[in-house]
Amino acid sequence: MGGTFDPIHHGHLVAASEVQVRFDLDEVVFVPTGQPYQKGVVSSAEDRYLMTVIATASNPRFHVSRADIDRAGPTYTVDTLRDLRKVYGPEAKLFFITGADALARILSWKDALEMLSLAHFVGVTRPGFELSDDHLPADSVTLVGVPAMAISSSDCRSRVSAGRPVWYLVPDGVVQYIAKRGLYRTD
Ligand SMILES: Nc1ncnc2c1ncn2[C@@H]1O[C@H](COP(=O)(O)OP(=O)(O)OP(=O)(O)O)[C@@H](O)[C@H]1O
Ligand SMILES: O=C(O)c1ccc[n+]([C@@H]2O[C@H](COP(=O)([O-])O)[C@@H](O)[C@H]2O)c1
């Protein structure tokens, strides 16, 4: 599952858990972006990486990859999938989890058609977005319903900035990491 994870929240974690069980995946690899060229300013890669490690540490099937953070330049999923293929070998079956909002824009991603051939894509429901694969090649994507979590990283950032709580929207350790590092504060 790729994401900017600024910060990682329970919407990401519930989606990953549902897909892991549905496809009986050996592991879910969370891949924080290095330079998410379609987003605005984001927190440092190391802060986003560490929040992702903290959030996933208690699940033995969840892992975090530095592939996108350690590769220079803008983050393209076609490169992520090539790097993960090298790590996991030719026999591994790769899935890439995306929310409905990301899936809707996926044809704008670099080398989209080649990218879609490098893994099986899993599109998950997300409140406020329509989940559809009408625009995508047949059999490249499976759509999966996950429990509705109306949580976004941008809302979490706004809440912290306004002094409002993010308890229970993000894991407790991530709440504490945000406070310790003073992330998202404007004062
Ligand atoms: N609440 C959610 N339910 C399902 N999928 C989600 C949810 N939030 C994010 N995703 C998916 O997780 C992936 C990574 O998302 P990302 O890290 O950009 O978080 P975000 O909440 O969308 O961030 P922002 O609000 O900053 O745009 C994307 O594929 C996105 O669609
Ligand atoms: O490959 C691309 O061109 C591309 C463009 C936008 C987003 N992505 C990937 O989609 C995932 C979610 O991205 P984001 O920006 O919504 O956090 C993450 O893994 C990004 O690298 C990939």
UniProtKB/TrEMBL annotation:
SUPFAM superfamilies for the chain: Nucleotidylyl transferase
One MF term in the entry's GO annotations: ATP binding
Matching Pfam families: CTP_transf_like
HAMAP family: NaMN_adenylyltr
Protein's recorded name: Probable nicotinate-nucleotide adenylyltransferase
Chain's gene name: nadD
Record-listed E.C. numbers: 2.7.7.18
The organism of origin for this protein: Mangrovihabitans endophyticus
Reactions the enzyme catalyzes: nicotinate beta-D-ribonucleotide + ATP + H(+) = deamido-NAD(+) + diphosphate
Family in the record: Belongs to the NadD family.
Keyword NAD found: yes
Protein's UniProt keywords contain Nucleotidyltransferase: yes
Every Cytidyltransferase-like domain range: 1-159
